[in-house]
Structure of C2 domain-containing protein:
Amino acid sequence: MTHTLKVTVHQATRLEDVERFGENDPYAQISLDLKAKRWPKTKTAKNAGKEATWNQTLELSEYNPQEQKELYVDILDEEIGFDEPIAFTTIPLNQVNAAHGRVIRGRFDLFTVKGEQKGEILLTIAVVAPGQ
Protein backbone atom coordinates (compact mmCIF):
# COMPACT_ATOMS: atom_id res chain seq x y z
CA MET A 1 0.00 0.00 0.00
CA THR A 2 1.42 3.36 -0.98
CA HIS A 3 1.37 6.42 1.24
CA THR A 4 2.28 10.05 0.69
CA LEU A 5 5.46 11.43 2.19
CA LYS A 6 5.14 15.15 2.97
CA VAL A 7 8.45 16.89 3.52
CA THR A 8 8.49 20.51 4.68
CA VAL A 9 11.87 22.02 3.87
CA HIS A 10 12.24 24.83 6.41
CA GLN A 11 15.81 26.08 6.14
CA ALA A 12 19.47 25.23 5.64
CA THR A 13 22.32 26.79 7.59
CA ARG A 14 26.10 26.99 7.26
CA LEU A 15 26.06 25.96 3.59
CA GLU A 16 29.29 25.79 1.63
CA ASP A 17 29.79 28.80 -0.64
CA VAL A 18 30.05 27.41 -4.20
CA GLU A 19 29.84 30.76 -6.03
CA ARG A 20 32.89 32.42 -7.54
CA PHE A 21 31.02 35.74 -7.74
CA GLY A 22 27.96 36.70 -5.73
CA GLU A 23 25.94 34.52 -3.39
CA ASN A 24 24.52 30.98 -3.55
CA ASP A 25 21.03 30.73 -5.10
CA PRO A 26 20.08 27.46 -3.37
CA TYR A 27 17.09 25.21 -3.76
CA ALA A 28 16.38 21.81 -2.20
CA GLN A 29 15.07 18.73 -3.94
CA ILE A 30 13.94 15.36 -2.57
CA SER A 31 13.51 11.80 -3.78
CA LEU A 32 12.97 8.24 -2.64
CA ASP A 33 15.02 6.94 -5.58
CA LEU A 34 18.44 8.26 -6.58
CA LYS A 35 17.77 7.20 -10.18
CA ALA A 36 14.49 9.14 -10.49
CA LYS A 37 14.52 11.58 -13.38
CA ARG A 38 12.37 14.24 -11.70
CA TRP A 39 12.70 15.29 -8.07
CA PRO A 40 10.20 17.68 -6.43
CA LYS A 41 12.03 20.88 -5.54
CA THR A 42 11.59 24.10 -3.59
CA LYS A 43 11.69 27.56 -5.04
CA THR A 44 15.15 29.06 -5.40
CA ALA A 45 16.28 31.30 -2.53
CA LYS A 46 17.92 34.04 -4.63
CA ASN A 47 21.17 35.46 -3.24
CA ALA A 48 20.65 33.53 0.02
CA GLY A 49 24.33 32.73 0.45
CA LYS A 50 25.10 30.27 3.24
CA GLU A 51 21.69 30.53 4.98
CA ALA A 52 18.50 29.72 3.07
CA THR A 53 14.85 29.67 4.15
CA TRP A 54 12.11 28.00 2.08
CA ASN A 55 9.30 26.84 4.42
CA GLN A 56 7.87 24.86 1.52
CA THR A 57 6.16 21.45 1.60
CA LEU A 58 7.01 18.91 -1.09
CA GLU A 59 5.13 15.63 -1.63
CA LEU A 60 6.18 12.19 -2.79
CA SER A 61 2.91 10.39 -3.54
CA GLU A 62 4.19 6.86 -4.19
CA TYR A 63 5.85 6.10 -0.83
CA ASN A 64 5.89 2.41 0.11
CA PRO A 65 7.23 2.07 3.70
CA GLN A 66 8.01 -1.62 3.14
CA GLU A 67 10.29 -0.97 0.17
CA GLN A 68 11.61 2.60 0.36
CA LYS A 69 13.87 3.01 3.35
CA GLU A 70 15.60 6.35 2.71
CA LEU A 71 14.83 9.93 1.77
CA TYR A 72 17.44 11.70 -0.37
CA VAL A 73 17.81 15.47 -0.04
CA ASP A 74 20.04 17.54 -2.32
CA ILE A 75 20.73 21.26 -2.18
CA LEU A 76 21.88 22.83 -5.43
CA ASP A 77 22.95 26.29 -6.53
CA GLU A 78 20.80 27.48 -9.44
CA GLU A 79 22.97 28.40 -12.41
CA ILE A 80 22.52 29.10 -16.10
CA GLY A 81 23.15 25.70 -17.66
CA PHE A 82 23.97 23.06 -15.04
CA ASP A 83 23.07 23.65 -11.39
CA GLU A 84 25.98 23.13 -9.00
CA PRO A 85 25.65 20.73 -6.04
CA ILE A 86 26.10 22.40 -2.65
CA ALA A 87 25.20 19.63 -0.20
CA PHE A 88 23.25 16.43 0.31
CA THR A 89 21.99 14.07 2.99
CA THR A 90 20.26 10.71 3.26
CA ILE A 91 17.62 10.26 5.98
CA PRO A 92 16.57 6.78 7.19
CA LEU A 93 12.77 6.70 7.12
CA ASN A 94 12.46 4.09 9.88
CA GLN A 95 12.68 6.95 12.39
CA VAL A 96 9.67 8.65 10.77
CA ASN A 97 7.62 5.45 10.64
CA ALA A 98 8.41 4.75 14.32
CA ALA A 99 7.58 8.29 15.50
CA HIS A 100 4.32 9.20 17.24
CA GLY A 101 1.84 10.16 14.53
CA ARG A 102 4.47 9.21 11.94
CA VAL A 103 5.79 12.79 11.94
CA ILE A 104 9.24 14.09 12.87
CA ARG A 105 10.82 17.52 12.81
CA GLY A 106 14.57 17.71 13.05
CA ARG A 107 17.90 19.07 11.94
CA PHE A 108 19.95 16.78 9.72
CA ASP A 109 23.64 17.09 8.89
CA LEU A 110 24.50 18.02 5.32
CA PHE A 111 27.56 16.80 3.44
CA THR A 112 29.58 18.40 0.64
CA VAL A 113 30.32 16.58 -2.62
CA LYS A 114 33.71 15.75 -1.05
CA GLY A 115 31.90 13.93 1.79
CA GLU A 116 32.70 16.51 4.47
CA GLN A 117 30.01 17.42 7.02
CA LYS A 118 29.07 21.06 6.34
CA GLY A 119 25.79 22.64 7.43
CA GLU A 120 22.37 21.46 8.51
CA ILE A 121 18.88 21.28 7.08
CA LEU A 122 15.67 21.61 9.11
CA LEU A 123 12.86 19.35 7.89
CA THR A 124 9.45 18.14 8.98
CA ILE A 125 8.69 14.72 7.52
CA ALA A 126 5.21 13.16 7.71
CA VAL A 127 3.81 9.87 6.43
CA VAL A 128 0.19 10.23 5.28
CA ALA A 129 -1.81 7.03 4.84
CA PRO A 130 -4.36 6.74 2.00
CA GLY A 131 -7.60 8.51 2.92
CA GLN A 132 -6.05 10.73 5.60
Q: What stands out?
A: Residues 109 and 120 are 5 Å apart (CA to CA). The first strand starts at residue 3 and ends at 13. The chain has a mean pLDDT of 95.
